Amino acid sequence: MTAQTELSGVFDRVSHRLNEPLARHTYLKIGGLANVALFPSESDLEFVISELHRISMPWIVLGRGSNVVIDDAGFSGAVIFTDNLSECIEPEEGSGLVRCGAGMGLGRLLSLCAQKGLSGMEGLAGIPGTVGGAVYGNSGSFGCEIKDVVAEVGLVNSSGGTEILQNSKIPFRYRSSGISEGSIIKSVLVRLKPDDQYAVKERINGFVRQKKNTQPINLASAGCVFRNPESASAGRLIDDAGCKGMRVGGIEVSRLHANFFVNTGGGSAADYIGLMDAVKNRVMQHSGMELHPEVRIIKRETGA
Ligand SMILES: Cc1cc2nc3c(=O)[nH]c(=O)nc-3n(C[C@H](O)[C@H](O)[C@H](O)COP(=O)(O)OP(=O)(O)OC[C@H]3O[C@@H](n4cnc5c(N)ncnc54)[C@H](O)[C@@H]3O)c2cc1C
């Protein structure tokens, strides 16, 4: 029996596509085909994971694909998209608590915060990912990290069981939640503080303006390529090493922010990784500092 026949029970219930080009789902516009793309609803998520587990099919999860570089050869297995996990509820008016599906865009959550006068995550404005992706990588900007507002996270583990993790049980650190790659974040409860609606909106708009002026947010990229070393800025180190404008194939070091590589058209994952190596070497020669990736590189044969 082929893996696809074995998944017929999933295909009967869950929206899916076969041989899906992943370049369509990444900000970088890079990535070959996935054997199967699945778009489960919240109620089907446990079933999907347990079925993939049963037939030992490797899988990965993607939100908006704004922090990933996916192999030109695609992904051998199933890609679970969180697009249909985007419900959002305020469990108790005035409590400052908001529960949202992992696939909800950060931008949509921030608009809701502005509407309701809820403060605490304005610094994340302009980050193009989902709430689930942001929690997975503990996204941060302008001195704000998502870990500061997360109260609890609903997870589906690698065998399809559900768990609720309180913030104190999640080993958050810089750009990492420590949540295992074999789990999917299903929902997130955030705790915010009441504030004036107009003030929240103004702060959000201000941060978006700053981002537009300093990062190539309208070009195809995967966000910051390298993590900031302790007490240094990766962008500054790359800039000081004279790497702005360096290219491999269709990928170029942004001239606006050196820690962003942009796809100028026709770039590949191989070009991106080649440019990472070249920049890393040049920074090492120039400053003796070693850079480590912040972007997630997804190879064809990885997955839970
Ligand atoms: C222009 C631009 C600006 C950016 N600015 C910032 C910034 O200021 N600060 C910052 O921190 N990041 C920034 N990023 C990076 C990126 O937007 C964030 O990391 C974002 O939160 C990723 O969300 P996503 O939904 O796109 O995740 P994806 O790219 O789809 O996935 C990223 C990782 O998270 C995992 N993941 C996604 N969803 C889930 C889930 N539900 N459960 C478990 N794992 C999951 C994936 O498997 C993958 O390993 C920027 C990116 C761009 C393109």
Short structural summary:
Helix content is 27%, strand content 24%. With 304 residues, the protein is of the alpha+beta class.
How would you portray this structure in words?
The chain has 304 residues and is of the alpha+beta class. Among the domains are: 12-81, Uridine Diphospho-n-acetylenolpyruvylglucosamine Reductase, domain 2 (2-Layer Sandwich), CATH 3.30.43; 88-214, Uridine Diphospho-n-acetylenolpyruvylglucosamine Reductase, domain 3 (2-Layer Sandwich). The chain contains eight helices and 18 strands. The strands form six sheets. A five-stranded antiparallel beta sheet has the order 6-7-13-11-12. Strands 1-2-5-3 form a four-stranded mixed beta sheet. It has a three-stranded antiparallel beta sheet with strand order 15-16-17. A hairpin with a 7-residue loop joins strand 16 and strand 17 (261-263). Helix 4 (106-116) packs antiparallel against helix 6 (197-214). The protein is globular. The model has no long low-confidence stretch (mean pLDDT 95). The chain binds flavin-adenine dinucleotide.
Sheet of most strands:
5 strands, antiparallel
Distance linking N and C termini: 21 Å
Task: Give the spatial strand order of the biggest sheet.
Answer: 6-7-13-11-12
How much of the sequence lies in strands comes to: 15-25%
Helix content: 25-40%
Salient structural properties:
304 residues; alpha+beta; Uridine Diphospho-n-acetylenolpyruvylglucosamine Reductase, domain 2; Uridine Diphospho-n-acetylenolpyruvylglucosamine Reductase, domain 3; four-stranded mixed beta sheet; 8 helices; 27% helix; binds flavin-adenine dinucleotide
